[in-house]
Amino acid sequence: MIITCFELYSTANTSLLFTETxxxxxxxxxxxxxxxxxxPITQLLLLGVVGSAIIASLTDTKYxxxxxxxxxxxxxxxxxxxxxxxxxxxNSAEVLFAAMTFYQLxxxxxxxxxxxxxxxxHHLHSTPESPRKSQYRIKG
Length: 140
Prior knowledge:
Structural class: mainly alpha
Shape: elongated
Number of helices: 7
Strand content: under 5%
Distance between the termini: 101 Å
Largest sheet: none
């Protein structure tokens, strides 16, 4: 049996087209998956936000988690608050909106991949710049 070049070419193109269609379907299925499928960083962030808010409520330590430049940083030198103010939200509305936001960000994690999403999320939640030296009030 003799196979012409045209038949070979058309068979290869059909196979290639089928493979590309299959990849697109797999990609779409991954992007439209429900829940936290292929989104472990988002799941960890959501559980961390809700869990830390619950722990802060149960232990009555919410007042440690908010920050004001004056008096906490400038007057009382409580620089540890720069680290703790990001750990938990202090009321239920903040927790609800943070949880909804993180849940919606699972699509971006699937699109970017977990590693890039983790780096991007870290930059999003980094601490603000410290005040300029001219803003410090010198006592004495």
